[in-house]
Amino acid sequence: MAAQTLTKSYLHVPRKEPFIGLTAGQQLYKMAEKHPNKEMFVFYVDKERFTFKQMKEKSLQFAASLVAMDLKKGDTIAIWGANHSEWMITLYACIQLGILLVPLRLEFPHTTIITLVNKLQCKAIVLMRSPSDLLDKACECFAELKGTPAEQFKSDSCPHLQFVINCGNSKGNIFWKRGVYSYDDFIALGNETDISKVEEICKSLDIDDPCCMYFTSGSTGIPKPAVHSHHSILNNAMTGGFRSDVNVLDCDWESLRLMQVATFAAVNSWLGTYLPIVRGSTSIVLFPTFNAHIMAEALQNERVTCGPTLSHHVHDLVNLPNIDSYDFSNFKQVSIGGSIIPHKLRQKMGKIATHTTNRYGMAEILLSHCGDPLDPPEKIADAAVYPTAGLETKIVDDKGIIVPVNTVGNLLVRGYTSLKYYLNNDEKTKEIKDNNGWIHTGDLAMMDQTGFLTIKGRKKANILKEGVNLIPAELESVLYKHSKVHAAMVVGLPDERVGEEICACIRVDKTASPTEDEIREFCRGKVHTLLIPKYILFLDEFPTTTTGKVKL
Length: 552
Prior knowledge:
- This protein is an alpha/beta fold and 552 residues long.
- Helix content is 27%, strand content 25%.
- The longest helix is centred in the first third of the chain and has 17 residues, at 52-68.
């Protein structure tokens, strides 16, 4: 934390630990040798467990088959579907070869799938076991899969696409001879010579080479693929999402068992994916599909220590009718990203975890700010976060000038966690990453004199009413403190007289719903008078992205 009292909204937090000087593939080899029989991943729903040695061997064999198919460094392949072990095997195979994996989200429409596969020049698509109709969907996107022999397969819509790997049951409808390989058939393609080539390629890769990509959340537009280097991914994962030592949880790194509930296609999954190879920890994967009962069972049965998650997951968990019947004694910390934690939810979370902290990050900067169990209680309650070690943070006005502390402005971050680029999109890369290396997050934030930040929302989401620029997050943070409010989203509605009028969309406790007047009265004196909502909508659910963010 800042040793001196700040007057301007700029802070650099020194990093004490040295950087890792290996690539992700090289780090996997190192850990497989150090912890050959230790669990690396547990896929709880599928009842599958992989040691470090097994994950290395499986991914090495998959990589050998990619080499046999003449794929090489710089190529891209897409992966589509829910989280299963083949997802992780494919990822680590690509990492060893310098191949970039394109994680397609399940909610993408067919037109988006075709556009991304074509624009990013994917040479293959890997289909997961679920949903069970993925192969049919692939055939709807790429009709040539239905009847073209493998040696003649060519997609008119995506000319770079060469083949598809199906991890699920094809039900006899389509065979590998038509451009689709079963998972088992594909991994048998690589031989010992190919395996040796993979190991040579892996050793030759550089820490600044592209490692992986994450799509932006899509809350303010079409998702963009943010590409990160091995250096940024591994060294950010090395923090484990902690600012103080992990001993605050009464354990060491190698005994840490991390819950992973976000999809591998989302940046939220980065920590559980890479923490094992940098710390020797174990990741417990709860998806393919979220279920609060399964989450409770896994926390108990797998002795989970901590985990990053999303507020709606925790909301469903703490409201289970039989929540008191589970043993969560090993679960020390839960960290929430993507939203403010409602006051009532925070109180209930004491039933499942000793500590509750907030996180802030995005696809372009990974985890840049986080809370900590040792933070002052008032900072934890306000969802305040502090910069990750090694990064610079500043808050500037619209002219780029650093503002005084306790002043809302534009949040900029600079450091080793920054994306390399948006894949095949130089124009957007230049928009978010300036010539001095600062990432323009597009978020509004305020830094206090001790260096803590509170996020005030997206700049583009601001509401202009009566000529005054209003920040929706200020009203949302107040609404979240109401005991009957589960979630809140504030938007502007067009108004002929004032420009935009305030509309508060609220999920409430149905057993004791507040009135509109009660909500307005609760807000008076706590926010700008112009932020008192004229319109109030009580909703059952909000539309969200796969990362849990509300769609704007």
